[in-house]
């Protein structure tokens, strides 16, 4: 029985839409918990093994060094450059261009030197190459201890949005959610170099966002580590690129770009989400949203757990025997 003093009138202020949304959220939460409980033995079968981590281009530790093997989609790309290398390859027009000794690109506002596939022309090139010295800056999640042991085996999804600066691609936004989709980290990251292209169509970022950027790549990485340990499972789409950008070494990984059947091609997160979850993402005029993408990759994992016949063959076989 509800006490007479209970503020029942507070419920009157809730719109029907909010009530329905609240019920849906609770139903989703209960469904996720049930799936993970019933499929707990299957989750580990979706985690990439050691050879797959290497073959699919994730950062791996070799002795006291970090190595990244170009995956099948990166075979012709230069991923890193040596200290005295002053040439880069544009990811937009694929031409080789010169940079200054410090790695920065000199911009000439009067000369259009680059063109995209739609015929748009620019006075600058863009590239994703990083200096070799960055391979020495990777870090691992904390080891399991009495303070973080409850994070072992738990799923956490990560997504990174990037911008292009005078020295190449840099992290602009990072979002991390827990297994229920609750946001643990959502930060705008201040690039170390001047931004020349916010790539708003894809990143969702603008110069206004950067006015409030207080995090650095290093500080946001520590925030990620606050919520995981070395046994936590990281989820994402094309997660190898995100970990490379964040300079994170991790071995327990589920990548939705590998998880599903794709006829030999890397499926987009947008297509997978529409096909399997009947949900449209990445269609906002403001660009992509890292929170939306992280949650979508997480929900695709749950979909795969209850629909193993739709997984790619390497995961389908291992799941079907459990």
From TrEMBL:
It comes from Caenorhabditis remanei. GO terms for cellular component: nucleus. InterPro entries: REX1-like_exo, REXO1/3/4-like, Ribonucl_H, RNaseH-like_sf, RNaseH_sf. One of its GO terms (molecular function) is nucleic acid binding. Residues 154-310 form the Exonuclease domain. This is Exonuclease domain-containing protein. Its main location: nucleus. It comes from the Eukaryota. It is found in: Nucleus. The keyword tRNA processing does not apply. Belongs to the REXO1/REXO3 family. The keyword Nucleus applies. GO terms for biological process: negative regulation of gene expression. Keywords: Exonuclease, Hydrolase, Nuclease, Nucleus.
């Amino acid at each position: 029985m509800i006490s007479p003093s209970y503020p029942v009138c507070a419920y009157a202020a809730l719109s029907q839409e909010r009530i329905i949304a609240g019920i849906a959220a609770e139903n989703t939460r209960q469904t996720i918990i049930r799936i993970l409980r019933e499929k707990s033995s299957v989750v580990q079968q979706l985690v990439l093994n050691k050879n797959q981590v290497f073959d699919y281009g994730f950062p791996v530790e070799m002795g006291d060094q970090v190595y990244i093997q170009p995956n099948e989609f990166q075979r012709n790309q230069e991923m890193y450059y040596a200290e005295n290398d002053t040439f880069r390859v544009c990811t937009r027009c694929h031409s080789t261009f010169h940079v200054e000794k410090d790695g920065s690109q000199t911009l000439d506002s009067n000369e259009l030197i680059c063109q995209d596939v739609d015929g748009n022309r620019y006075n600058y090139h863009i590239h994703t190459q990083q200096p070799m010295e960055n391979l020495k800056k990777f870090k691992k999640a904390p080891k399991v201890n009495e303070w973080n042991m409850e994070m072992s085996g738990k799923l956490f999804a990560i997504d990174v949005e990037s911008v292009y600066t005078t020295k190449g691609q840099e992290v602009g936004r990072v979002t991390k959610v827990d297994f229920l989709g609750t946001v643990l980290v959502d930060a705008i990251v201040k690039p170390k170099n001047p931004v020349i292209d916010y790539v708003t169509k894809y990143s969702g970022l603008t110069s206004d966002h950067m006015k409030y950027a207080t995090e650095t790549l290093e500080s946001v990485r520590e925030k990620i580590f606050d919520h995981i340990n070395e046994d936590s499972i990281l989820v994402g789409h094309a997660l190898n690129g995100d970990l490379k950008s964040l300079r994170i070494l991790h071995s327990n990984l589920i990548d939705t770009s590998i998880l599903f059947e794709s006829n030999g091609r890397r499926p987009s997160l947008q297509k997978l989400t529409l096909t399997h979850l009947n949900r449209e993402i990445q269609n906002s005029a403001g660009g992509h949203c890292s929170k939306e993408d992280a949650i979508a990759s997480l929900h695709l994992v749950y979909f795969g757990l209850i629909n193993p016949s739709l997984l790619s063959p390497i995961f389908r076989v291992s799941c079907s025997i459990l």
